[in-house]
Amino acid sequence: MINRLIKEIQKKNAPIVVGLDPTMKFIPGSIKEKAFSVYGETLQGAGEAIWQFNKEIVDAVYDLIPAVKPQIAMYEQFGIEGLIAYKKTIDYCKSKGLVVIGDIKRGDIGSTSAAYAVGHLGKVQIGNESYAPFDEDFATVNPYLGTDGVKPFLDVCKEEKKGIFVLVKTSNPSSGEFQDQKLADADNRPLYEIVGEKVNEWGAECMGENYSYVGAVVGATYPEMGKVLRKIMPKTMILVPGYGAQGGKGADLVHFFNEDGLGAIVNSSRGIIAAYQSEKYKDTYSEENFADAARAAVLEMKEDIATALEQN
User: Fold this and answer.
1) Which residue in the list 12, 105, 161, 235 is annotated as catalytic?
2) Kind of pairing, strands 163-169 and 138-141?
3) Is 105 among the catalytic positions?
4) Which of 53, 180, 218, 306 has the greatest number of C-beta atoms within 10 Å?
5) Residue 212 near residue 235, CB atoms below 8 Å
6) Structurally, how many domains does the chain consist of?
7) Residues 266, 221: Cα–Cα separation, whole Å
8) Are the beta carbons of 197 and 169 closer than 8 angstroms?
């Protein structure tokens, strides 16, 4: 799957992933009204509104981007109906030829970790039949529990030729409370560097043509740390959150890429799916044209990143 992701990035000349992280405040009133007219102001109505919103966003941008990243928490808050919308979104995105990164941030050990890996990336056996429950192409993984928590995902990745993105240096302001702590028994280097080394080690077991199935999450809000981690993980695809709404911009991203122009894929979520509500686009695009605003935001992001890489 890492080979396919890279080919899609090259084909569309867009190292971009759109985060499908819907909230009810992002969804236009007309979509909510239509869903509620059928299902009422219920969890089912919310799930239907989310699904219809996602579908229109995807229809507007799928030809420009290689991948999407639905954040499962935004669906789980609506219970089973939200998870139904999550699964419908995954299936629809795949039908459009998009690579799907399930932003699930799972991290546990033993049979629990194995169950997460099977549920999201693998197949579950039921009698004589096997099924792929959620069937994402990649999943995000929390490494806090160490190799015991990651290995079940590695096993499934090897079997299914899928991938993971391991949290290394996240984009949120308080990430440094733990991730930046320096370890005396590791030459006083920060924890995120040690995690990066483990990602590189795990990835050596799961290589594609040029990059590993094991990727890393490194926030756009920490470009200097990204520069260090790029050297530590030369064969690792870096998923870069924090672009746009969190303050990251194209000029911050150049060190996340390798000299081949690959090695990173940059995420923007609300900066795209809620672009019609932003100061930049709200006077140009009405609520009914939210998908057109999303497309405009993708095109602008694509140009911003391309310009930054050309100037580097």
Assistant:
1) 105
2) parallel
3) yes
4) 218
5) yes
6) 1
7) 12
8) no
Contacts of 2 (CB under 8 A, 6+ apart): 163, 208, 211, 212, 213, 215, 237
- Given this model, what pLDDT does residue 312 score? 66
Give the domain range for residue 13.
2-311
Q: Is the pTM of this model over 0.85?
A: yes
User: What is the CATH number for 63?
Assistant: 3.20.20.70
Say if CB 218 and CB 229 are below 8 A apart. yes
Show the tokens assigned to 58.
Answer: 């995807």
Q: What is the pLDDT of residue 184?
A: 84
Across the chain, which has 312 residues, the per-10-residue mean pLDDT values are: 95 96 97 98 98 98 98 98 98 98 95 96 96 98 95 96 96 90 88 96 93 95 89 96 72 87 94 95 93 97 91 72
Q: Which residues, including other chains, have CB under 8 Å from residue 141's CB and lie 6 or more apart?
A: 105, 106, 107, 149, 150, 153, 164, 165, 166, 167
